[in-house]
TrEMBL record:
Belongs to the flavin monoamine oxidase family. Its EC number is 1.14.99.66. GO terms for cellular component: chromosome; nucleus. Histone demethylase that demethylates 'Lys-4' of histone H3, a specific tag for epigenetic transcriptional activation, thereby acting as a corepressor. Required for de novo DNA methylation of a subset of imprinted genes during oogenesis. Acts by oxidizing the substrate by FAD to generate the corresponding imine that is subsequently hydrolyzed. Demethylates both mono- and di-methylated 'Lys-4' of histone H3. It is found in: Chromosome; Nucleus. Residues 36-95 form the CW-type domain. It is an enzyme of class 1 (oxidoreductase). PROSITE patterns: SWIRM, ZF_CW. It catalyses: N(6)-methyl-L-lysyl(4)-[histone H3] + A + H2O = L-lysyl(4)-[histone H3] + formaldehyde + AH2; N(6),N(6)-dimethyl-L-lysyl(4)-[histone H3] + 2 A + 2 H2O = L-lysyl(4)-[histone H3] + 2 formaldehyde + 2 AH2. GO terms for biological process: epigenetic regulation of gene expression. This is [histone-H3]-N(6),N(6)-dimethyl-L-lysine(4) FAD-dependent demethylase.
């Protein structure tokens, strides 16, 4: 019998070792076998007035379902129920020691989770490199391959983890490595991050699977499946991880309905938010969800700032922001998922139409697009080793490189090819753009901050977040006492304020359908360089529907052509272009129209920021710096990684809410 026992044990170990070796990267030692297969599970009583930890029998396997429902004395594997007073039994004395700071440093092996919600996301990794047990993750292919992981039922826009050898994806984390802010918050895991990675990956995966409800300790803890007393410590650390990730806006963010404060100790803090655009609203929502008292001051009689929709033409037209650029891990996509809103994916097809009505050969467009991007690459390479004093305007440098290219290559472009090149230049100019109760003054000289409006109203708080557009900061619409630091003022004035305007037209018929054939937009090849930003792209606001609305933009130097025109004259100019593009048919007069005026809007005076000649991206970071821990700044012009976008503005608000909560 003893021989058979040893033989069975050896065979069990050998079988485990084979699985571990084929899936994992760490050594399949006897200690690892004991931790992974032999130690008993510990589980916490779910009764509100108990919460004691109990050791399960060696034969009892822990599942998320069991952990979610366990109560002291529960009958498991024919073990006798201990009676109604089971919760009164004392907790094992070993549990108390787990909470001591030294306990973590005494661990011989890091915990590796089984059946983690993160497992389907991370099948391309060695499980033990991302906090999971190799014995619980049999794979049909060798780990470490760069494959795109798809999780059934998950939105394709939710990709929280980098896959091996992948880079450059926005708002992703490496599942096998701690980020700098994580190391700062959890320095005790710098030597061996395995436990932290296991917990963080679990939390991110759980949030990606269900972002419509608040992620709590009660929801996550049952999924921590690991043998031994280390499970007690893992659940304790999980609470800290959830707190940190909520504060950073990585989870429990967006359009959630919060029933109780996420950070209860923050309730005594009061924050003023100046501006109810995307950044201000994002920050206010986060801070309120944390439990803080928040007052938002807005000059207009509406919220949204430069996000402003108009439905007067029978379909929603974004007078400001409307297109989501890059949907993967975008908070806008997250909120659409939470609210059940559908995003329409813009197609890649864009017919370029010449004045006269002829559709341009796509091969010609593709060829000129290639040359245009080659010129941009050359300009980018030139700029790399130049100081700010050696900088040159982008438009001038493009023309210089372009002329050099023509001279050295001996190529000659046709008149049409030149015009197509100017169409692509107009798109580049489009990309650069080139009750606040009329708040007038922010005084942060004392212990707190006082904000005063022009009419004399005053508000006081511990902290204030300024989210007004860059143009208003440049024009000193708001005064500060003491004045802002010179470093910040220099950064504010080193960025440019870009402007684009939109024109939307409602027609009685969809006259463009026969030529455009269901595309989301079509391009207008400019007749001359001076007009390259004048109605360069027309968007069909209802490409698969019955609405008859086109929206177009005016950018760059073409804006000067509209400066002294009435709205009706702008529409006449736009109609003359459309009639040139569709000469072969009768183009009806518009039934209704709208024309934006962001450049003259008192509380915007711009569309979005850009880096001026001689400036640098560092200016965004400097504008984002807080002053004395009391005065904070958010907005698209404070987000170096995602400027010029609602996403950037939103994320900057979340960022500042996290900073305010951390102080």
């Amino acid at each position: 019998h003893v021989y058979k026992f040893h033989k069975d044990g050896y065979e069990t170990f050998s079988s485990w070792k084979r699985v571990w070796t084929s899936n994992g990267k760490s050594e399949p030692s006897l200690k690892a076998f004991m931790a992974d297969q032999q130690l008993p599970y510990w589980v916490q009583c779910t009764k509100a007035d108990c919460g004691k930890w109990r050791q399960l029998s060696k034969e009892t396997h822990l599942s998320a379902a069991l952990a979610s429902s366990y109560r002291c004395g529960m009958k498991l594997n024919s073990v006798k129920v201990e009676g109604s007073d089971a919760c009164s039994q004392p907790e094992d004395v070993r549990v108390a020691g787990v909470t001591d700071s030294w306990w973590l440093s005494m661990l011989i092996l890091p915990p590796l989770f089984k059946d983690s919600p993160a497992s389907p996301f991370l099948s391309s990794y060695y499980p033990d490199c991302v906090g999971m047990s190799p014995s619980a993750s049999p794979s049909n292919q060798p780990p470490g391959l760069n494959t795109h992981t798809t999780v059934p039922g998950l939105s394709p826009y939710f990709q929280p983890f980098y896959q091996p050898n992948e880079c450059g994806k926005a708002l992703c984390v490496r599942p096998d490595m701690m980020e700098l802010d994580e190391l700062y918050e959890f320095p005790e895991f710098s030597r061996d991050p395995t436990m932290y990675l296991a917990l963080r990956n679990l939390v991110l995966a759980a949030w990606s699977r269900d972002c419509k409800e608040v992620l709590t300790l009660q929801k996550c803890a049952p999924h921590v499946v690991v043998r031994g007393l280390v499970r007690v410590r893992c659940v304790q650390e999980l609470d800290r991880v959830l707190y940190f990730m909520s504060r950073k806006g990585l989870i429990n963010t967006g359009a959630l309905q919060i029933k109780w404060p996420l950070l209860p100790e923050s309730q005594h803090n009061k924050v003023l938010v100046i501006g109810a655009g995307a950044a201000g609203l994002a920050a206010a929502r986060q801070l309120q969800n944390f439990g803080m008292q928040v007052v938002v001051l807005e000059a207009r009689e509406r919220i949204g700032g430069r996000v402003w929709d108009d439905a007067s033409l029978g379909v929603t037209v974004g007078c400001g922001a409307q297109i989501v650029n890059g949907c993967v891990n975008n908070p806008i996509a997250l909120m659409c998922e939470q609210l059940g809103l559908r995003m329409h994916t813009l197609g890649v097809r864009c017919e370029l139409i010449q004045e006269g009505g002829r559709v341009t050969d796509p091969a010609l467009d593709k060829r000129m697009d290639f040359h245009f991007n080659a010129v941009l690459d050359a300009v980018s390479e030139w700029r790399k080793d130049k100081s700010q004093s050696q900088d040159a305007p982008l438009g001038e440098k493009i023309q210089e490189v372009y002329k050099t290219f023509l001279q050295e290559s001996g190529l000659q472009f046709t008149d049409l090819e030149e015009k197509v090149l100017h169409f692509h230049l107009s798109n580049l100019e489009y990309a650069c753009g080139s009750t606040l109760n009329q708040v007038q003054h922010v005084d942060y000289s004392g212990e707190g901050v006082t904000v005063t409006s022009r009419c004399g109203s005053r508000w006081s708080a511990q902290k204030v977040l300024v989210t007004v557009p860059l143009a208003l900061l440049q024009k000193n619409v708001i005064g500060f006492s003491p004045p802002l630091p010179d470093r910040k003022l220099k950064a504010i004035h080193s960025l440019g304020v870009g402007v684009i305007e939109k024109v939307a037209l409602q027609f009685p018929t969809r006259f463009w359908d026969s030529k455009i054939q269901g595309a989301d937009y079509f391009g207008h090849i400019p007749p001359c360089p001076e007009k390259r930003g004048l109605f360069s792209v027309f968007y069909d606001m209802s490409p698969q529907g019955e609405e008859c609305v086109l929206m177009t933009v005016v950018t760059g130097e073409a804006l000067s052509l509209l400066r002294d025109l009435q709205d009706s004259q702008v529409v006449d100019l736009c109609m003359s272009v459309l009639r040139e593009l569709f000469q072969e048919q009768e183009v009806p007069d518009p039934l209704r129209f709208l024309v934006t005026h962001w450049s003259t809007d008192s509380w915007a005076q711009m569309s979005y920021s850009f880096v001026k000649t001689g400036g640098s991206g560092e200016a965004y970071d400097i504008i984002a710096e807080d002053v004395q821990g009391k005065l904070f700044f958010a907005g698209e012009a404070t987000n170096r990684h995602f400027p010029q976008t609602v996403t950037g503005a939103y994320l900057s608000g979340v960022r500042e809410a996290s900073k305010i909560a951390a102080l």
